Amino acid sequence: MMRRVRRPKDQEAYYTMLVDKEEYGIFSTYKDIFMLAGLIGFFYKRKKSFDNSTEGISWNVFNLNTDEIVIDMVAIKDTKDLDIINPDRFDDKITIFEEYAAGGLERIMQVYNDSPSNFTDNLYDFLLEMEGIKDSSQKEFNDITKLLY
């Protein structure tokens, strides 16, 4: 049985806020936030390790044809080791993405804190800005996204 995907306990309020339709909830699920945050963390090379986690996200909600491929590619790029996607190393690859997601969520919350009332527009603008960055990180991000199409 696959382990649950962890989120830092100190970020739980952010996850809750981002799915709360009464507040600024622009995401449908914690998994959606986790995946975007993981890619943002990877893109900006922001990893945050953590010990204390809240209830994890069930691996069953992840799409093996898209989500797992993204997680695999980030783990390969991070370690430069194709063996990281071996089923025996599932925990290792998930830990890498969990740490990128924790770092990426911090960046998402910076966008939120810049202007809470315009968060949706600002997050959209932020994502468009990511698309326009021209450096090695952009190439890595594009390489990963091309695998999905």
Keywords:
mainly alpha, 58% helix, 149 residues
Largest sheet: none
What's the helix count?
A: 6
How many individual β-strands? Answer: 0
Helical content stands at: 55-70%
**N-to-C span:** 29 Å
Low-confidence stretches: none
Class per helix and strand makeup: mainly alpha
Binned strand content: under 5%
Q: Taking all residues together, what is the mean pLDDT?
A: 87
Question: How many domains, in number, for the residues?
Answer: 1
Question: Rg from C-alpha positions?
Answer: 15 Å
Characterize the overall form: globular
Secondary-structure element pattern, one letter each: HHHHHH
Can you tell me about this structure?
The radius of gyration is 15 Å and the shape is globular. It contains six helices and no strands. Helix 2 (30-43) packs parallel to helix 3. It has one domain. Helix content is 58%, strand content 0%. It is mainly α and 149 residues long. The chain has helices at 12-19, 30-43, 67-79, 90-114, 119-132, 136-147.
